[in-house]
Amino acid sequence: MTVSDTPVSRDFLVRFAAYVGVLLAYLSASQGDSLTPAQLGLFVAAAGWSLFLERRWHRLFLPAPFKIALISLGAAAFLYFLLRRFSLPADGVANPIARFLFWNAIVFVLSRSKTEYDLWTLAIIDLSLFMIAGAFVQSERFAPLFAGCLLANLVVFARLSLLRCGRAGEVERRTFGLPLFQ
């Protein structure tokens, strides 16, 4: 196990379900945005890297300082797009906010050592994107995309509980007598 190898980083299903949830959340909030195809392409490339290629290289792909720099760059772009649309009606700010949240999700997908906190962050991004979609976008796709994202997040956290605690009723041999002494 390398320094950047965590149970979450090794588990395909938990990461795949988390990425599907983010994708569905972004699709609900990004209607009419001209940058959607580019961001979707970048997200699919980042998710493909995370799911299929990053385990082959043991060096960190996205160290913490670079991750912080990318989030700061995303914040600067967010402010730029937001200030450009400041004179627009309230629904004009939905796309810059959705872009910023989705950019942060892409940065988390690219970070090498994935932990439970990254999954919680992605779930919070999902929730934020759906709040934007419900408040500003209000399309007929909201309910099915929300249901799909909810199912994906249930898979994420059910799988995460299995990674952390094991299956119910299973006791490791080396800890079998431990409850007697506690």
Secondary structure topology:
Layout: H1 7-10, H2 12-29, H3 36-53, H4 64-84, H5 94-110, H6 116-137, H7 142-165, H8 178-181
Please give a quick description of this structure:
It contains 8 helices and no strands.
Outline the structure in words.
Helix content is about 70%, strand content about 0%. It is built from eight helices and no strands. Helix 2 (about 10-30) runs antiparallel to helix 5 (about 95-110), helix 4 (about 65-85) runs antiparallel to helix 5 (about 95-110) and helix 6 packs antiparallel against helix 7 (about 140-165). The protein is globular. The relative contact order is 0.19. Mean pLDDT is about 80; it is low at about 175-180.
| Range of strand content | under 5%
**Would you tell me the overall average pLDDT?**
79
Number of strands: 0
Distance N terminus to C terminus? 31 Å
Q: What structural class should be given to the helix and strand makeup?
A: mainly alpha
List segments where confidence is low: pLDDT < 50 over at least 5 consecutive residues: 177-182
Q: What series of H and E elements makes up the topology?
A: HHHHHHHH
Q: What is the rounded Rg?
A: 19 Å
The tally of helices reads 8
Largest sheet: none
The rough form would be described as globular
What is the helix content?
Answer: over 70%
Keywords:
182 residues, mainly alpha, 8 helices, 70% helix, disordered C terminus
